[in-house]
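Researcher: Batch entry, complex prediction.
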Amino acid sequence: MKNLFSKKNKGPKKPLTVEQKITRRNFISFGTFFVASGVAYGGWKWLYNSPEEAAGITAGARKPLRRALNKTELAFRTFFSNNHLVKTYPKEMAAKNVRHNSDVGSEGKIDIAAWKLQVKKQSGEVLNISLDDIKALPKTDIIYDFKCVEGWDQISHWGGVKFSDFITHFKLDDQTRLEYVGMETPDKEYYVGIDMPSAMHPQTMLAYEMNEKPLQPKHGAPLRLIIPVKYGIKNLKRLGSISFSDKRPRDYWAEQGYDYYSGL
Amino acid sequence: MKVIKEKHPLAMRWTHWVNFPILTIMIWSGMLIYWANDEYKIKLFGHTYFMFFPEWFYKTFNIPHRLAEGMAFHFLFMWAFAINGLVYILYTIISGEWRELVPQKKSFKEAWLVLLHDLHIRKMAPPQNKYNAAQRIAYTAIIVMGIGSLITGLAIYKPVQFYYLTWICGGYHFARILHFALTIGYVFFFLIHIVQVVLAGWNNFRSVISGFEVVNEPDPQPVIETPTPTDEKPIQ
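Model: Structure tokens for the complex:
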């Protein structure tokens, strides 16, 4: 073995024997293996035990994981397009027994005659819209596969007004320049925040019918959100108020560790 | 005389060991998600043979009521799983290592002989290069499964934006079943893999960490320096 560049001259170096080579390479690779395993284990411990995020618009998730959810949202938002439509089905395929998961914000009875939808513009101006005003707009039907964050899905049939039609009709176009729509139930017990592109998606609607009949109380009478580009958790029942903002509006499930975006 | 024989390149060893904890986390967090709608079971002629999963299983691994947590972990480590897999695939393509890994025409026939050999039914195993026929099939299948998990995962993660993936996977429902079945597949792969590694012994296991195997070769003959033969015609 040539050793021209060796600084210390200890005389000609003897080539390593096979045994020495084996020992040396085992030492290096197993050393690396155990150090890397230790680092990986330490990293996992750090992540698993990392503190919960400060409770705000989102809450209940580990801090680094919340950051990751928000970054992942940005990555997948680039794939969002109004041309990507949820698959629709023939009417016969719609479930007759529509699954019902939760009553938060839509418990008890509601006086439909007295009900008004409050639309709060950013200027502070408030519109009070009756169900008849909404029903006067062109009606759209959608039969699609409703998807719950829990993992179940069900084909269901909804009728109502396209959200984008609603916006145009009530001259709210300037509000859509803001980044988010916030929706709340009349008792403010349930609330969701929707990014504007998803809200303005052509299949997003304010629904007042299910299976061609007026909404039942447990399915969100008199008016509810049907937003096929989101999980069920965003499909707020018994709509009370709509607001617009550049900041994320509060969101019931994002406060409990779920992804704010929850887009499909 | 002992001789060092190079076996697994560095890139393959790293991606192999990086994948192990990542896949473990993906399976665990996937279970936290699956629990929220655990509808799969093995049912034949009206009789349920197995429920995914029994109560004791959920209890042992502390699975229940952790859906949000499971999703948060799953949607972080999916990136690591995908990137690590991509690095591995790119490496095998660029290095040419894929030639050792992809099954050949004869592999499917030979894999049977390998199985018989491994079960001690047949004495001789078919001749092989780096991997035998059964390994070629297994190690290629696991990559196809990985790609499958990625595609079925995206199909249920963004079924509207990636509607074409959902369509390829046979719809939202079926994509979720496939995603689940692939995971069960990994568990079976893991079990067989571990048994095989134990049977293959230390020298083989070490090669996945240090890269080489030690083989005993007959003592070398005295070396006679000869010019390396070339294809060129001798100069006259």
